[in-house]
Specification:
binds magnesium ion; Rossmann fold; globular; disordered C terminus; Ribonucleotide Reductase Protein R1, domain 1; 344 residues; disordered N terminus; binds guanosine-5'-triphosphate; 5-stranded antiparallel sheet; binds zinc ion; alpha/beta
Length: 344
């Protein structure tokens, strides 16, 4: 067992342990040690314990790809050999091109900080993808607009983001200053876990260093961005869990090039509530809200209560989700593609 110098000792509840995890332990397992996965590499993992960071021992032939940063595991106390992983209360995962198994981004997360900057990275359609993703995983999304110090007027960015989903929290900050931690404090309590997601170069690692009060060698690497189009250089290459100075835990992640959607039907229904709620009033149950007579959504577009650009983006995301989401149908449970208009 190797101790790795990082965050200091803590209690199980402040690490995010709760009755949900406690209830999963059998009597025989209560003597085992509980650890929270902090980093996942190809052949090794580290975890946070109540007495500091530790290296986890993997049983022979076990793959690290089955674990997500934020997972709870139970291990043999002396060797830190994994006995099993506990069920998750939220899992962020996405399909990536070419890979069979989904990529696990983070587990047991309460809040998703969707990070974008007050510059060319800001894009409503892209934010909607992240929102559908957050909703589906049953995490609370917060839009975090960085580089407020570089934007003349942040009001248009805030207004644009706020109307994307009902009750959505939107904050602006300068990720480099300690004030940023105060702005995000409402989501960073003891026992809470937040994850930073977004494009490369928006300031996720800068924000992590501010939240975790990391400096020098201990800090996450950050990289500059291209001045012409504000694109980052993919500085962060793996996911990792860190203690927040005032309590709670934060997960840094590598910048995502394109967040392709699959398996997010419920997430889209929440995101596009103004469409979801009107759909039962359409004349046809399987209305596509395109050209059918008696369409309640088209009527709402006509009277100005639904934004036609939203309807267009809703259609695009629905189609993408349908095309990417396998549906177990047929007598043998063969995978087939979901037909258009099936879940509308
Ligand atoms: N002025 C200003 N610069 C910022 C702010 N946030 C981040 N930066 C700068 O933006 C650049 C990119 O920041 P990073 O923290 O590396 O971005 P990232 O999102 O972690 O990028 P990847 O790891 O590549 O995904 C760095 O030069 C930061 O100093 C901010 O709020 N204001
Ligand atoms: Mg980074
Ligand atoms: Zn309709």
């Amino acid at each position: 067992m190797t101790e790795i110098p990082d965050d200091a000792a803590t209690s199980l509840p402040s690490l995010g342990w709760s009755a949900f995890f406690e209830g999963q332990l059998s009597d025989a397992e209560t003597g085992l040690e509980r650890l929270r996965i902090a980093t996942v590499h190809r052949s090794r993992m580290t975890a946070q314990s109540t007495h500091g960071p530790v290296r986890v021992a993997l049983p022979p032939k076990m793959k690290t790809t089955d674990y997500a940063v934020g997972d709870w595991i139970i291990v043999e106390p002396d060797t830190h050999l994994i006995v099993r992983r506990l069920d998750r209360h939220a899992l962020l995962q996405r399909k990536t091109e070419g890979a069979r198994a989904p990529q696990l981004i983070a587990a047991n997360v309460d809040t998703m900080f969707i990070v974008t900057s007050c510059n060319d990275d800001f894009n409503l359609a892209r934010l909607e993808r992240y929102l559908a993703f957050a909703n589906e995983a049953e995490t609370n999304p917060v839009i975090v607009l960085t580089k407020a110090d570089k934007a003349g007027d942040t009001a248009p960015f805030v207004a644009g983001a706020a109307q994307l989903q009902r009750g959505l929290d939107v904050v602006t900050l300068n990720a480099k200053t300690p004030d940023a931690a105060d702005t995000l404090a409402p989501w960073c309590h003891e026992g809470q876990t937040v994850v930073l997601v977004g494009s490369s170069g928006v300031g996720k690692s800068t924000l992590l260093n501010t939240l975790a009060a990391k400096e020098g060698e201990d800090a996450q690497l950050t990289g500059d961005i291209r001045e012409d189009d504000a694109k980052g250089r993919h500085t962060t290459t793996s996911r990792s869990l860190h203690g927040i100075k005032g309590g709670g835990w934060v997960i840094d992640t590598p910048g995502i090039r394109t967040l392709h959607l699959s398996d997010v039907s419920d997430g889209l229904d929440i995101l596009f509530a103004e469409i979801t709620e009107r759909a039962p009033d359409c004349h046809f149950r399987d209305c596509t809200h395109a050209h059918e007579p008696g369409c309640a959504i088209q009527a709402a577009v006509a009277d100005g209560s639904v934004d036609p650009a939203r309807l267009e983006r809703w259609r695009k995301l629905q189609d993408e989700n349908d095309a990417n989401t396998p549906d177990i149908t047929g007598p043998k449970g063969n995978y087939s593609q979901k037909g258009r208009g099936k879940k509308r």
